[in-house]
Amino acid sequence: MTDMGRSPHRWRFFRSGGFDQVRLDTAEDLVHLSELDPKLWSVLSCPTSGLEFDTRTLELLDANGDGHVRVPEILDAVSWSCSLLKDPARLIEGGDALPLDAIDDSTPEGVRLLASARQILANLQRSGADAVSVDESSDKTAIFSARCFNGDGIVPPALSDDEEIRSVMGEIMERFGPEADLSGEPGVSQEKLEAFFTEARDFLDWWEAGQANPEEVLPLGEATAAATEVFESVRAKVDDYFTRCRLAAFDARATAALNPDAAVYAALAAGEIAVSAAAVAALPLAEVAAGRPLPLGEGLNPAWAESIERLGRDVVNPLLGARESLSLEDWEAVSARLAPYRAWLAGKAGEHVASLGAERLRAMVDGGVREAIADLIAKDGAVEEQTASIDAVERLARYHRDLFALLNNFVSLRDFYSARRKAIFQAGTLYLDRRSCNLCLRVDDMTRHSALAHFSGTYLVYCHCERKGQQPMTIVAGLTDGDADNVMVGRNGVFYDRSGLDWDATVVKLVEHPISVRQAFWSPYKRIARMIQEQVQKFAASRDQALEEEAMSGVTGAVARAESGRGGAQQTPFDIARFAGIFAAIGLAIGAIGTALAAVVAGLFNLAWWQLPLVALGVLLAISGPSMLLAWLKLRQRNLAPLLDANGWAVNTRARINLPFGASLTGVAALPAGSQRSLDDPYAENKRPWKTYLFLTVVVIAVVAAWQQGYLDPLIEQVLERFRSTGGG
Questions:
Q1: Would the pTM of this model clear 0.70, i.e. be above it?
Q2: Who contacts 118 (Cβ-Cβ below 8 Å, separation ≥6)?
Q3: Same-domain pairing of 275 and 375
Q4: Among 460, 486, 513, which residue terminates a domain?
Q5: Mind listing the pLDDT tens digit for each residue in 694-722?
Q6: Cα torsion at 472, 475, 481, 487 (round to 10°)?
Q7: What is the extent of the structural domain holding 471?
Q8: Which residues contact 25 (CB under 8 A, 6 or more apart)?
């Protein structure tokens, strides 16, 4: 008994992959999962991307948003789900639809969640439904229409039936930008509402300040704004003119310098002169002289004549009366009359709303529109808790469907080591070289992955996969059965992902390890065959080159002898002794080979019949035994963990891939049971019996050599003795 007076939960384990894994079969297993020692978990962390698992569910599990799901986050999800379900076994049953009667409404949170689930169905026009699916709980746009409050603090115009309110909300969004409501429609938040009406009030305060003293601020009434615009357009140039005149009055010697020099006009006269030319506009408004007024008609700089005439007509004459010219005193008087308006204009507020005009803004401010929109926003905020519960409905629906599957790839690797379904890290199936590889993982960085995956002890094939209309990807496949004789970089295959889509796959990298004991058995013979083939090729190439060089040398020598004169050189006589020695050496070599073979054959003849298979087996073991033993030892070390760790997992155990399990991960081509097979190949190569002749020749040489050496005499004597004893002689 524990300190709390109850027995600890009784766990059940199964052994697979060379280690004990916990079984999660009952609701009690899930309820007590937090009591399971983390050291007994198969995985401590997994990434939220690159898996054949619902990405949104993984994001919900990843509470801190670091891109990994860890043990505490799994425990929190299991505990939360169990607390909201009447029967936690529902998580084991799973299913895309969460039944409403499965939600535990005995707690306040459960009551809110059940109400939110029913609200979702009502908004989707499915009020009579008894279950809510993952898709239904996830589609916020469908759940929250533009005419429903959703608690996000943003209200679209469609929420109001008042045309004026909808119009004002449109003005707010136009000037301060819309915000997206959960329904997907643009709307207004409290922040944007306050910004709009703050500027509206500021603008009205500014406007009313100008209207309080219209005689002073608006000396020309409604025409003041246009007159001030004309005044500002020439103010700097008129100030320049009167400043020049005042300098001329100060010192008469400055007059000539203050007027354009004749050279300036000469430069202008050298080309075409346009009234709008910058050089003309830079000249003074009129001829500069001490105390000279500014003419408003004749005698003006052509570039400024129209603007000054408009100044006289729209500003000077209305303010001072009709004038033919403008004195310095008149100019200062005009500036003083317009100064209050200019100062008022400089303090203008409400830039974003000014275009609506004071009358429209006053109607908005005084019409209670702000209060009406604020009330809509407050009503929307009042259902914030309900909206949060709607998010909880999505979370529970996803956990109801996906959580147990994740547990069988996290707490244990049950999915991987069972035939029920593929693990979440298995990306699909690669078909290559008459085999199917089911241990395929997505890879982001091949170089980084292969550096760690090498320690898995598994023969790995990295493939670049492409499919039209899809982003290319890289996978790694484990070859765990068959051989790798025809697997090489550049070979093409086909990869089928978990959705059934086919991809063009090209081998780009190999990490070589033993594949099977069967492959190891034939490996020495294949190496010897390759070595003999390479040596024969090298010998043939060297002999071909030697013959070519010898022929060239012979031709060159013959030409040289022909050029030295006919009969001038003696031919080298045929040396019969030399060739006799060569044939004698060849005979000795054949004899030695024959003697050795005879000794072997004689030794075999001296054995009993049942000893011959043992000798053959011993020879095979002597050749293939070391390779098979080494492969067996390495195959026992095959480990899944480095493959997953290289993808960002934190595997908590040594997950072995033994020989039987490895054979199940790779399917080798085989004819179906009951198939009929014809060996008649019309395109088969013609068989030549030279191998048989060579074998018979070697046997004959061995028998003759054994007879000559007397090894066969005892055997012949035994045969003759048996023949005599049977009455043959």
A1: no
A2: 100, 127
A3: yes
A4: 513
A5: 666 766 766 666 666 665 666 667 666 76
A6: 60
A7: 425-513
A8: 12, 92
